[in-house]
């Protein structure tokens, strides 16, 4: 008999995506099904989500704590969904968190409190065996269940500790939680209401998205004010690597590519490099080491380090394709770099899923120079698509990429290149080392084959999650 798990997330692919959380929430249910875990995913009823589910039947009317709300159930894109139809919170334009002006909705605290409240009501009212809450937006689910008449075990997954969901303490009076929930042993966080803190305090088990990140966040350097709580709960904290849905991310079938290819037939990949060069206005040079960076243009992601290392990249004869959106100052610097180096640097500011796939399928190497990285999906996509990544040695990047050092090359196990995080000079050196490897056709061919042979699927991680849920359901997880 399957265990029934309610996953709670603020976004999920293919319905709505702003980042890696959506990929995880969209892929993990399918990966858990062979393990005997039946996942239903609770999502807010944003306009795009409600359009996707149509007139789905209502399965639960919710108490009017945050305004009229009900839960609809539907199957969409292979996901078994519960949708929180709460017009007062979610029927509005913009992305899940910000309005059309790019600013956070001022009532985000109430909006995602409603999501946590709905999760608890669904877990109790619809008979789920466990709850899997993702990131701060789902942080109050465990707090509500902590004071419920029936205990439903909760796993809380941290996707990025930097995003904590802190709100004014006055909001606490709107939540309906008992006074005992306010305090250090509760949802209070340095005088504010902390949604992420609530999730960490209330969960039965805490996971994050890589083993190394699980260790890093228990230190003052990387714990972002929560390391003390995480150390106190160390026996309940663990890291489980993210994976990719191999059916969604498959260079042999991906329609976004100019030419499909595989590990067994890599030759067509050259057509993708030419197409990528054309899309970014780069010189059509098949021998130039082509680097790509895909993702948020942000300090955390190390985009400034790439720009500082650009002279070394260009000096090595390389080209750079930048795709992403983020901090205005970094966007401007990327545009300026492209203008200053026509044919050598190209920048596309915005989010384009198809172009991102072409970057993975056409670049020689993908840059992931994050200062910290809970897991990262870019390097997994790069491995899958044969673009051995150049990554900072931190978090999940350290867990998923084997550096092409002398011994690893001799052993034939290297899959990419690593460098110490936060150091532009070391990144410049790593870029030059990577360019040298790319120009050694035999060495790079071996590295690419190793990368594409990596198991970046959810199989191992799904088994770990399944064991965790089974243990909790049995009362001894």
UniProtKB/TrEMBL annotation:
GO terms for cellular component: cytosol. Residues 279-433 form the Glycosyl transferase family domain. Gene3D superfamilies: Glycogen Phosphorylase B. Keywords: Glycogen biosynthesis, Glycosyltransferase, Transferase. GO terms for molecular function: alpha-1,4-glucan glucosyltransferase (ADP-glucose donor) activity; alpha-1,4-glucan glucosyltransferase (UDP-glucose donor) activity. Belongs to the glycosyltransferase 1 family. Bacterial/plant glycogen synthase subfamily. Synthesizes alpha-1,4-glucan chains using ADP-glucose. PANTHER family: ALPHA AMYLASE DOMAIN-CONTAINING PROTEIN, GRANULE-BOUND STARCH SYNTHASE 1, CHLOROPLASTIC/AMYLOPLASTIC. This is Glycogen synthase. It comes from Roseicella aquatilis. The gene is glgA.
